[in-house]
Amino acid sequence: MALRTGAQHLVDALLANGANMAFGVPGESYLAVLDALVDAGDEFRFITCRHEAGAANMAEAYGKLTGRPGICMVTRGPGATHASIGVHTAFQDSTPMILLVGQVARDMREREAFQEINYKAFFGDQAKWVAEIDDAARVPEYMARAFRVAMSGRPGPVVLALPEDMLVDTAQAPELSYIDPAKAAPHGDDLEGLKALLGEAQNPLVLLGGGGWNAQAVKDIQTFIEKNDLPVGCTFRAKDYYDNTRPHYAGDVGIGPNPVLAERVKNSDLVIAIGPRLGEMTTSGYTLFSSPVPHQRLIHIHPGAEELGRVYQPVLAINASIPAACEALKKIRVDSSAWAGEAAKAHAAFEAFTCPVEVSHGVNLSKVFSHLSEVLPKDAIITNGAGNYAAWLHRFYKHRTYRTQLAPTSGAMGYGVPAAIAAKLIEPERTVISVAGDGCFMMSVNELATAARYDARVIFIVVDNGAFGTIRMHQEREYPNRLSGTDLTNPDFKKLAESFGILGLEVLHEDDFPEALKRARRAKRPALIVVKGDVEAIAPGKTLTQVRGQ
Fold it and tell me: What's the whole-model pTM score?
């Protein structure tokens, strides 16, 4: 039983659980925690960010990349509300994360004290658990539960409020041990049922997605796929769950999927969904499956029991952690002669869909991202936020290994820049590329200061077309020729980068991109490449003129 302050117990709990980094903006409401971190020395790094949204997105990216909760520390009131975007992303993306929020002193609660917020009410529907620690002696208890809740079942964010007077109280409390998540395993009857249903199928398809994966699960599911000659697709922003170059890969299912793949999903007689929630983005607006009973037979494997049957009623629901499910599946083999050749057809359609297209306006992004795919190492990490630029990236960049794609399924703009910085700090030897549109980039451009401060040698690619492209596309489709609110005024991004000590480069034609990328990769500092786009080239194979009024 150690006699420590609440803040010291908190830091002890973080260190006991292997947390070695937190992202945040300092605030007076948790000064005691910042002070306790001084004693942790080199065991723990506090990454000072320039906005709480950036800090929360960095913590979310940490959770995606490592599988352990990303830690974010923010002050009360505005600090917490700014950080809520990262909490929402972690919730929708099923990412383990712990947000630690300074809170007003206990004797000031319920008075609308300075920056006071009821965090249980504010975060109640966007976090797995929200609590306030009133007693310094219970800090280890709360932290143990926070780690376990964040990682167990469907992973997600936890929010803990820390009254500033509690943090300086001293109390005896036991030391915390390392917390591992609870793991649900598939039942033998479930596996026999899956094997029987697969054996009866004529045109099966596997979909991979969701949270809770690791490298071994990816390896195990590859064995299952190839042993049974199955076509496999990945869900929205989970392209790195299966090597895109392998002969069974059919493409990603989400926004604007390959029409051939969409038809394959609709025409399958058995879909084995491993991990995804089967929400709006995965199902192309709930159009790929009929609700509540899909016309395809559906086997749904998910670590969160509450997700099974939430929208679509499966013929077989299996509540299991992803690693345990994949380890069991790799042992299953059935006669695959009924669908022989289908995986090869699906992969051929994917290859055809990902060939560069011609554009008549601006830099050809299909050639830019195809070039990235050809020359980057297979473990390069690519991050992005939201916008039509991402449609080009997702279609033409091929992921080859697990945890090389960090992107928000929540569709949050401003994610890519902070996520890339976090990735480079966590994995300094890997190549990290942040891709953003001009609108997306400007939502977190202040974090360039963080990249410069910590020498996070990210290559930032900014597609500058002077518009909120996605919204413009919808606007022109629904309200043709009635432009409102979607034009942008931008700074000189090259000069802006240089003002931070970052290498600034500009690309006016796709043929100039390879040399710019070489220069950026050789630079011994962060680099930014401005790619001049044109809003008329709104999406692969589409122009605004074609979309208008459609």
Answer: 0.96
